Amino acid sequence: MLDGRPLIDAHVHAARLPTLRPAWRSWAEEFGSSHPWQDLYDEGGALVPERVGAYFEAEGVDVALLLCEYSPRTTGTQPIEDLRPLLEHDPRRFRPIANVNPHLHYPIGAEVERQLGFGAVALKLHPVHGGFGVADPELYPAYEVCRDAGLPVVVHCGTSSFPGSLNRYADPTAVDDVLRLFPGLTFVLAHGGRGWWYDAAAFLALSREEVWIELSGLPPRRIPEYYARHDLRRLARKFVFGTDWPGVPGIARNARAIAALGLDEETLALVLAGNALQVYKGLTVPPPTREDHRMPDAGPFTDDVVRQITRHMNEDHAADCLTICRALGGRPGATAARMTGLDAEGIEFAVADGGVEHPVRIAFGERLTERPQVRREVVRMTERARAALAGGLDVPDRP
What pTM was computed for the model? Predict the structure, then answer.
């Protein structure tokens, strides 16, 4: 639950690090630099279920759909078996999505059925990384299994920068051909046509009831620009929230940025969780709470600006981050702190305290409207925090 609303992240990469190509690590480190995803792993490169569960809880995620992938030519092979520790740790919050590659799996229908035995709620196809077309007849048995089981097929529809990728297979128009052969099958267009196919993805979603757009990998503030030729309020009713974690500034941050687009409350609730509940079987979330649903918006701080400020704070002012969190963040016993994000209303940290990392948000003294104000506000916070730790200022509990 985030700000009183249920939240489902439909696109999460929960891979073991030894299975991944170096390019994947570089991608995650660049685009996920504002949050401590590396701290969720043990020394052997495996995710620690307790740490992952606490992290997604702190981000407000009620359900996370976890991806496996069999793409040895690009990102590597991340078998569905590697997801088992997370699935067993919290089977309500963590649900798997199956994946097949027609170059590797035969008979492919049997492999889909095998992976469904892990509780998979969908099948993911990655034509760009796997090097195949979505309308390849080799996939027909997989489509039959999904149609008969009432499960959606998630298709990567967007460019990829990983070495070995074949971006010509990202075009979503072939989905229309498959739907004519398999009526009743549901498709989710991951990445929403990123690159050259936004209009094609939008047209499919608006013209076909069984097609949805999943927002992973798309900066929320740019969504109106990407789909400028379409009625955003109408199209948004076919959106499914997803982040592409860990290559994202933050799950909660992206959800709040979606809220800042100005959608009506009913549509926003559909984007953040309601549509996923309709598309993916067996998911459960708590009911929304009766509280103020207004979310802070990013204001003038774009993803690039936040990434630059975060890097500067963590590289040049790590001691100040810790001082601020000890004195103003309610964590006097903290041993480490790193900035993870900010918006116009406040700054966010990940704070190590008692062997566990905690999210901390500290409100600014006023709503910021321009970048230079950040430095002045952080300096003010630091001076106030130092005074408090020296015993010269009584600092009330943070809101």
Answer: 0.74
